[in-house]
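Example record used in the benchmark description.
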Amino acid sequence: MSSSSIQPDTPLDAPLPPAKPVRALGWRLGLVVLLTCSLAVGLTEWLNLPAGHAMGWTQALPPTPQALPGQARAGTQELLFEPSSAGAADLQAAQPPQPWLQWLARDLGLVLLLSLALHGVLRRMLLRPMQALDGQAHRLSQDLLAERQRSAMLRQQSEQQHDALLQAQLAHAATTRELNELSRVDALTGLPNRREFEEALRREFKRAQRQRGCLALAVLDLDRFKNFNERYGQAAGDAALQRFASLLAERFKRDTDLVARLGGEEFVALLPGFEPQACQQLLEQLREDLRALQIAHAGGVNESLTLSVSVGLAAYSPQQPYLSSQALMQAADEALYLAKHTGRDRLSRAAISAASPRSAQADLAGRKV
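Model output (structure tokens):
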């Protein structure tokens, strides 16, 4: 198998190892086959030789003239002769070729034949499949390299998209926060709006019930403000609302206080922990501060012909409990209704016994008088 196979722990960014050709393995295999066949043929020939045949190379040679008299004497005591020089020459001329040269020529041919046959079989059964596998491994390595490049590109694109998505999420979160703030803040005055006030009222009312504390709620409505807008214009009306909102924020600036605009010229102050008497004094001082601003209102209700405010006050306490936050709000609305119908520019305080039921239409009509 080619060395281009990829290890499992290879990092994706690492370069692919170079592929070694199978051709070098074929040459090595041919050399091994040749040596193996040579050894096999040589060993086979050696094992097939008869006993003493290895020494026959020298025994097959004709005896030298000097050895003949000795051999004759060894065979018989009576035969004695001397070979002539001509007979020795004839024997040397008739000497057969040496057997080891025939063996060498025959075995070399056999070794080459076996080597070629075995190499062809091994090449067909082993080298060709290995070459095919090596080609496939090389193609796979090229495909893997291309996949790595695509993976790196996709990872880079994914990181860029992730960063873009993170930026979009941060921008969306910031926009959501701004929208939530806008949905809870009155655009004209900057005070909390009705939604924020209603959530705070439910929260503070439950806390007052749980801790058996005090909770004051004041509803404030600017007197004859519709007439003010008609006489002085919308811009002057907006400026008057902004000045009154600033006055409320200055007078009620504890962390627990909440001043909100319910809509139009109607505002509300939620004051946790205030006793009814102390809260009433603060609201009376607020009415005086508004007159001190000297916002001219020729259609006003006071002698100075300045903008004034009517206030309805209701307070929750262990001595004057309310069943719910809606009941406390209704009591403050009824107190404001009473202040409107008794001359305006005054504060009316709700009593627990005065929480008589009345329809929302009557409340709304009383506020617009």
